[in-house]
Amino acid sequence: DGGITQSPKYLFRKEGQNVTLSCEQNLNHDAMYWYRQDPGQGLRLIYYSQIVNDFQKGDIAEGYSVSREKKESFPLTVTSAQKNPTAFYLCASSSRTSGRASYNEQFFGPGTRLTVL
Amino acid sequence: RKEVEQDPGPFNVPEGATVAFNCTYSNSASQSFFWYRQDCRKEPKLLMSVYSSGNEDGRFTAQLNRASQYISLLIRDSKLSDSATYLCVVNYPDSSYKLIFGSGTRLLVRP
């Protein structure tokens, strides 16, 4: 089965701790993304990566870091510098496929709910 | 002004009803448009892309009006299972990779 997996599903963090959220895809997609969703709000882009070993900041990158050492993997670290980390974190990927379907349709993993205690 | 604006709802309709959502976007340079569906506490799932000529997928019809910068989604013969939040999505004008998500319109279909 092709898809995007995220782990863990739920994560609890103490203040001052760094935590890393996993995102893996076996869709052979080039681009990967991290979003944050707060209750009643839309998704906000944290970081994105178009190719391996390259990534760019999104709209709310402060307090977060990423790496893209492999095409399949795009882990997100929530650092202690992120003041309000409690949120629903979503990873997505997209492919440069041709045809009528837009190549920037994004497909999402099931998400990680992070709670700071 | 928000880059993508949607009526948050909720739209409360009986089974079998036809319901329409609109969404407006602020940047005329956007080129890609989508509707996503998000169930409570789940990830968004692509419902359909929106093309200039309009497109239909079963009970769902999407339309794009570039002149007025709005996108619509029409759902015919509503089912209980259509209850969800519908997200309007457009691309960032400076990047075809980056997408801007609206906050969503909530639909409740009652028996």
Short précis:
The complex is a heterodimer of chains A (117) and B (111). Chain A has 117 residues and is mainly beta. Chain A has strands at residues 4-7, 10-13, 19-25, 31-37, 43-51, 54-57, 64-66, 76-78, 87-94, 107-108, 112-116.
| Parts with pLDDT < 50 across at least 5 consecutive residues of chain A | 97-102
pLDDT < 50 stretches of chain B: none
Radius of gyration of chain B: 13 Å
Helix content of chain B: under 10%
Give the number of DSSP strands of chain A: 11
Euclidean distance between termini CA atoms of chain A: 35 Å
- Helix and strand pattern of chain A: EEEEEEEEEEE
Strand content of chain A: over 45%
**C-alpha geometry of chain B:** globular
In DSSP terms (H or I, runs of 4 or more residues), the helix count of chain B works out at: 0
- The DSSP helix count of chain A reads 0
Which of globular, elongated, flat, extended, rod-shaped describes the shape of chain A?
globular
Secondary structure class of chain A reads: mainly beta
Radius of gyration of CA atoms of chain A, rounded to a whole number:
14 Å
> Which protein chains are joined by the largest interface, and how many residues does each one contribute?
A-B, 25 and 22 residues
- Sheet with the most strands, sense and barrel status of chain B: 6 strands, mixed
Structural class of chain B: mainly beta
What does this 3D model show about the protein?
The complex is a heterodimer of chains A (117) and B (111). By secondary structure, chain A is mostly beta strands. Chain A is 0% helix and 48% strand. Chain A starts with a strand and ends with a strand. In chain B, the strands form two sheets. In chain B, strands 2, 4, 5, 9, 10 and 11 form a six-stranded mixed beta sheet that branches. A five-stranded antiparallel beta sheet of chain B has the order 1-3-8-7-6, with no helix packed on it. Chain B is globular. Classes of the chains: A mainly beta (117), B mainly beta (111). The A-B interface holds A 31, 35, 40-43, 45, 48, 50, 58, 88, 90, 94, 100-111 and B 4, 8, 32, 34, 41-46, 49, 51, 87, 91, 96-99, 101-104.
